[in-house]
Design a protein that fits this description.
The protein is mainly alpha-helical. Helices cover 71% and strands 0% of the residues. The protein contains 20 helices and no strands. The protein is globular.
Length: 503
């Protein structure tokens, strides 16, 4: 299925709006010293909250969340519990520390207590993981873009050259408006992208309901009649066997999101653009409410697709089911009318660019003690690195189409294990020094590697729940705990006051 003239017009208008926002952000920042990385610390809290959501949501989320409801149930929604816990911890303890330090990169804050080695170690740990993770997301984003823009083989296969072309197109557009206005351009374009993405999902829901000839209540009743288990919101019995069980979301998954919200420059950077830590705190907590709406809408899309492709559902039309397991992508490509398809495609592109632009500014801000000198050159350099990484994924996927991408998307658990241990010691204690901090950053990822690769070979994959592929938050949590202990073993060279709750 190819884009029609109206689809192209919709997409061009959307891209034009995105570039215009970047240009406007650039003009507002002329003459302001800290504009490129911090937006002059003048960004409105509501825009920062939406940008935070835009960064957290990727193309993998857009396709994966509907899929979890289509093939499973609604227990993914429980991730909001973990995110809320993490947002509160970051809002009341982490953000005041970062604002008091007055830094553009959160890793610069480590230098004052732990020394240059700790700052550099944290920065390189983040950069190594982010290149792989964002490169993988860029590759995933290129798949639907290539499907829409370029010819496909029989059965929907895509030639590697077209995937590479799609990677370059996304990277060029995202890099262009990032260069124009820095983090301010990223935030305002993220706002537009979240609105477009959510609007596209709501429109898809309306079209499915209209095609099925039922309302929201009717859809709920139909799902309950066919399989009431698909409406389950909370899994209280799975324990460590599920990422989204009550035990997991209250412990390991919560720690995972503390690491993401509080130690990943990619997400924290936009929070540092608020005037003070109190406004930043309101933004990160408010973003969870927006995230709940986004996740809820995409889960509902998955349930509606479950009805849409089931011929035995009462009162429901019969449709040709997807040939693979990507129901939402199939629906967009084969069922949506001209014009609407372009809008939903714009939403997919929005998710792709929102993940990439934030990664570029975050990576460029790491190093040189937050200096803005050569910032745009660094953005281009990291854009090239991410593009090369994505193209390598295109090449590697020919031989390992399964397992490669899940590994790449969870690769941030390795740096998170070391970074979270060090930042917990940094925020909540006076202990630790340069040597223990660097050692912790090395030990944390090593624990994750041992639990994921060594223990299964010695004891068997099924011998320990923590070695299961889905148990990556638990492995990260154990790695962070060990890293915290290692960091605390170092005696501080000088006393450092505990942070207050205001900045």
């Amino acid at each position: 299925m190819r884009l029609g003239a109206v689809d192209w017009l919709t997409l061009v208008v959307y891209l034009g709006v995105v570039v215009t926002l970047g240009v406007i952000a650039s003009s507002r920042g002329k003459g302001k010293k800290d504009w490129f990385f911090l937006g002059g610390r003048s960004m409105p809290g509501w825009a920062v909250a939406l940008s935070f959501v835009g960064t957290a949501v990727s193309v993998a989320t857009v396709t994966g969340v509907p899929e979890s409801a289509y093939n499973g149930d609604l227990t993914y929604f429980a991730v909001l519990i973990a995110q809320l816990i993490a947002a509160v911890v970051v809002a009341f303890w982490f953000l005041p520390v970062f604002y008091r330090a007055g830094v553009a990169s959160i890793y610069d804050a480590l230098e004052d207590r732990y020394g240059v080695g700790a700052r550099r170690g944290a920065g390189w740990l983040f950069l190594a993981g982010r290149v792989l993770a964002s490169g993988a997301r860029l590759y995933i984003a290129a798949i639907p873009v290539a499907l829409m823009l370029f010819p496909t083989r029989s059965g929907g296969g895509i030639d590697a050259v077209w995937l590479c072309a799609a990677v370059v197109i996304i990277a060029v557009v995202a890099t262009a408006y990032t260069l124009a206005g820095g983090i301010a351009a990223v935030i305002w374009t993220d706002v537009a992208q979240v609105v477009v993405l959510l609007g596209a999902a709501l429109l898809a829901m309306w079209l499915i309901l209209d095609d099925l000839g039922i309302g929201v209540i009717g859809a709920y009743e139909a799902v309950r009649e066919i399989d009431a288990g698909k409406l389950r919101l909370l899994n209280v019995s799975a324990g460590m066997r599920s990422d989204f069980s009550l035990l997991s979301v209250l412990t390991a998954m919560a720690l995972f999101h503390v690491a993401a919200f509080g130690t990943d420059q990619d997400l924290v950077q936009r929070l540092l653009t608020c005037k003070d830590s109190k406004r930043a705190a309101r933004s990160v907590i408010g973003s969870i409410a927006v995230m709940g709406v986004v996740i809820g809408v995409f889960l509902c899309v998955g349930l509606l697709l479950f009805l849409y492709y089931r011929p035995d559902a009462p009162g429901v039309s019969v449709h040709v089911p997807p040939s693979g397991d990507k129901a939402f992508a199939w629906f967009v490509l084969h069922e949506l009318p001209v014009g609407v398809r372009g809008l939903v495609f714009a939403g997919i592109v929005a998710a792709a660019m929102s993940s990439l632009d934030s990664a570029l500014t975050a990576m460029a801000s790491v190093g040189r003690r937050g200096s803005g000198e050569g910032a745009r050159v660094r953005v281009v350099a990291w854009a090239v690195a991410l593009t090369v990484c994505a193209i390598l994924f295109v090449w590697a996927s020919r031989n390992d189409g399964r397992g490669l991408i899940p590994f790449a998307l969870s690769v941030m658990t390795y740096p998170y294990a070391g970074l979270l241990g060090v930042f917990l010691a940094f925020v909540f204690t006076r202990r630790g020094n340069g040597r223990s901090a660097v050692a912790a950053m090395a030990v944390g990822p090593m624990v994750v590697v041992v639990l994921e690769f060594v223990v299964p070979r010695v004891a068997g994959r099924d011998a320990w729940l923590i070695t299961q592929p889905s148990a990556y938050p638990w492995r990260m949590a154990w790695g962070a705990c060990v890293a915290l202990v290692v960091c605390l073993c170092g005696r501080a060279r000088q006393a450092s006051a505990l942070p207050s709750t205001s900045a």
